[in-house]
């Protein structure tokens, strides 16, 4: 941890608001973006990410300098987002429960689709397509995609942020990416049908 | 590696969490199996596309809003401390009044029961009024430090132990008054001058090592520390080594004189110089500057809140950025001053005289 940051944190522990302002400045954009991807709208993203920063301020005295400040902060951000989503979604399924759609039930861990990747590669992976697909992921899968692929955190950092083992991180990333792939393939098939 | 293993390991390979051996197996399978290779490339493509998702900029009013919320939180925390004091003092006053009325009863003073009850009731309702007035202030957001009592409560929080029932004079009338004046007398009196103290000593003595030990111990016991040591030893063919040591200590300002006394008795004083650098004016001017900057910041934030025009908003935000920078710089300067004022510096040069001289 940077020496300068350590000094700032100690000042914050004494209640110095200015120091806190300076301390969190470089984390604000990332925190906002994580919230935006998780909650999908800017108003909620602003409210919830700021709620997280306030929690950081209120609980900074409990920071024990054992982990990195950044991962501690992002853990609070992540948890605040997940808590909000859980409260909002009255029907929250565990990752193992099937999703109900108009076409019938789809297992959450989506097995290989009939149209192989070969065909999918021919179609264009547009930014919009990928965006949509990410927002359709289950929140527990969405967060790892956001942390790993969008924000670029290492597996170690993610295990700190999500407070789980690296083994769990590995398997979650694997499942999340697979699900993402399946959603994309489904989207492409739908688009194909529409365009024809 | 078979296809099932391959599919499960795509992420690990892409993220670089494989050892050399595993990597080789993985790459071998890619070259051998077409469908797996396609799976791999597709996944690679997806991840690449995800990585290129752009980060969104913070909304215009994000920082302003967050600062506003944090200030509210900070005020709440302060308020909670203040409320406790108010409640404490009104409870204390209430108890005192009850005790007085009890003592009046027992000493048979010309207060009959009904008058006494009225007295109790009126003081109680007065307290209620005080409390509601306080609550009203809370709703408005700003608590005016109207009475000197609150000031002292804030400044002398360590003295809370002293405000026991015993310390409050038991007079019949003007009881609450004396309670108040007691508080007022404990307030901060006067404004001390702020000076930076520094001294230079040059001492000759017989045993430097022993003296060094003594100095280290003294400094530790008196809440200071050794900032630097500069040691010189040189030898001569037929003479004993002569050593010299320059030791720079930082010691609490109120122990400055006492420390000089201590050091001087270690040996023979060759040279002595003390400096008292009065920095009160500089300090006060920076303090005033800082206060102005904070007020300016508040004002700008207020204006920003009321501004609709985008252009104006960005101009104001530029101003705010500038003010923030200045605040940080002034605040740092004041801290540096405080450090030098609170901890004086003594530079001592110790020169060893050897027996033969």
Can you offer a commentary on this structure?
The complex is a heterodimer of chains A (196) and B (357). Chain A has helices spanning 3-13, 17-24, 28-39, 42-59, 69-88, 117-122, 127-136, 139-150, 155-161, 166-195; strands at 99-101, 104-106. Chain A has 196 residues and is mainly alpha-helical. In chain A, helix 1 (3-13) runs antiparallel to helix 2 and helix 7 crosses helix 10. The longest helix of chain A is centred in the C-terminal third of the chain and has 30 residues, at 166-195. Chain A is elongated, with a radius of gyration of 19 Å. Chain A starts with a helix and ends with a helix. Mean pLDDT of chain A is 83; it is low at 96-114. Chain B is extended and about 90 Å long. The termini of chain B are far apart. In chain B, strand 2 (225-234) and strand 3 (242-252) form a beta hairpin. At the A-B interface, helix 2, helix 3, helix 4, helix 6 and helix 7 of A face helix 1, helix 3, helix 4 and helix 11 of B.
Counted beta strands of chain B = 5
Shape of chain B: extended
Quaternary state of the chains = heterodimer
Q: Overall 3D geometry of chain A?
A: elongated
Short description:
With 196 residues, chain A is mostly helical. Chain A is built from ten helices and two strands; from the N terminus they run αααααββααααα.
Topology:
The complex is a heterodimer of chains A (196) and B (357).
Chain A (H helix, E strand, L loop, with lengths): L2 H11 L3 H8 L3 H12 L2 H18 L9 H20 L10 E3 L2 E3 L10 H6 L4 H10 L2 H12 L4 H7 L4 H30 L1
Antiparallel strand pairs in A: 1-2
Helix pairs in contact in A: 1-2, 3-4, 3-5, 4-5, 5-9, 7-10, 8-10, 9-10
Chain B lengths: L2 H13 L4 H13 L1 H18 L10 H45 L6 H28 L7 H8 L19 H11 L9 E11 L2 H14 L3 E10 L7 E11 L3 H9 L3 E11 L1 H27 L3 H33 E10 L5
Parallel strand pairs in B: 1-5
Antiparallel strand pairs in B: 1-4, 2-3, 3-5
């Amino acid at each position: 941890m940077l020496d300068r940051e350590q000094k700032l944190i100690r000042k914050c522990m004494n209640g110095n608001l200015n120091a806190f302002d300076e301390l969190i400045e470089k984390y604000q954009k990332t925190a906002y973006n994580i919230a935006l991807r998780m909650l999908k709208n800017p108003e909620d993203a602003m409210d919830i990410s700021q709620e997280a920063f306030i929690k950081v301020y209120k609980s900074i005295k409990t920071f024990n300098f054992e982990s990195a400040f950044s991962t501690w902060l992002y853990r609070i951000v992540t948890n605040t987002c997940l808590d909000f989503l859980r409260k909002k979604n009255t029907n929250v399924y565990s990752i193992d429960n099937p999703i109900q759609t108009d076409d019938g039930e789809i297992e959450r861990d989506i097995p290989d689709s009939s149209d192989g990747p070969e065909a999918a590669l021919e179609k264009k992976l547009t930014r919009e397509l990928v965006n949509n697909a990410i927002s359709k992921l289950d929140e527990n899968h969405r967060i790892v995609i956001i942390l790993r692929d969008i924000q670029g955190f290492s597996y170690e950092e993610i295990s700190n942020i999500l407070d789980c083992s690296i083994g769990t991180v590995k398997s979650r990333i694997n499942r999340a990416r697979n699900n993402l792939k399946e959603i994309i393939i489904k989207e492409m098939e739908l688009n194909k049908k529409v365009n024809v | 590696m078979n296809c099932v293993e391959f599919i499960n390991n795509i992420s690990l390979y892409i993220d670089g969490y494989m050892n050399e051996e595993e990597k080789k197996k993985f790459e071998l399978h890619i070259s051998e199996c077409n469908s797996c290779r396609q799976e791999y490339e597709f996944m690679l493509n997806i991840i690449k596309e995800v990585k290129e998702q752009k980060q969104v900029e913070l909304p215009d009013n994000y920082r302003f809003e967050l600062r506003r919320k944090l200030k509210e939180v900070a005020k709440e925390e302060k308020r909670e401390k203040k409320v406790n004091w108010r409640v404490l003092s009104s409870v204390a006053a209430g108890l005192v009044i009850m005790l007085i009325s009890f003592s009046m009863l027992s000493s048979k003073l010309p207060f009959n029961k009904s008058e006494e009850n009225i007295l109790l009731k009126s003081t109680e309702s007065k307290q209620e009024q005080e409390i509601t007035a306080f609550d009203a202030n809370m709703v408005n957001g700003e608590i005016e430090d109207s009475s000197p009592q609150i000031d002292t409560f804030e400044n002398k929080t360590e003295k809370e132990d002293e405000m026991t029932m015993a310390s409050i004079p038991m007079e019949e009338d003007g009881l609450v008054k004396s309670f108040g004046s007691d508080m007022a007398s404990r307030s901060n009196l006067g404004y001390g001058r702020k000076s930076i103290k520094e001294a230079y000593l040059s001492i000759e003595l017989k045993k430097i090592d022993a003296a060094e030990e003594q100095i280290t111990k003294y400094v530790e016991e008196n809440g200071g520390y050794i900032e630097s040591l500069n040691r010189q030893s040189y030898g001569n063919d037929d003479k004993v080594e002569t050593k010299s040591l320059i030791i720079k200590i930082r010691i609490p300002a109120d122990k400055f004189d006492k420390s000089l006394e201590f050091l001087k008795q270690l040996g023979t004083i060759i040279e002595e110089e003390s400096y008292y650098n009065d920095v009160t004016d500089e300090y006060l001017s920076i303090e005033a500057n800082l206060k102005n900057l904070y007020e300016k910041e508040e004002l700008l934030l207020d204006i920003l809140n009321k501004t609709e025009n985008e252009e104006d908003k960005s101009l104001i935000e530029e101003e705010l950025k500038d003010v923030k920078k200045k605040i940080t710089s002034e605040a740092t300067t004041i801290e540096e001053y405080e450090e030098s004022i609170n901890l004086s510096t003594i530079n001592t040069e110790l020169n060893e005289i050897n027996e033969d001289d």
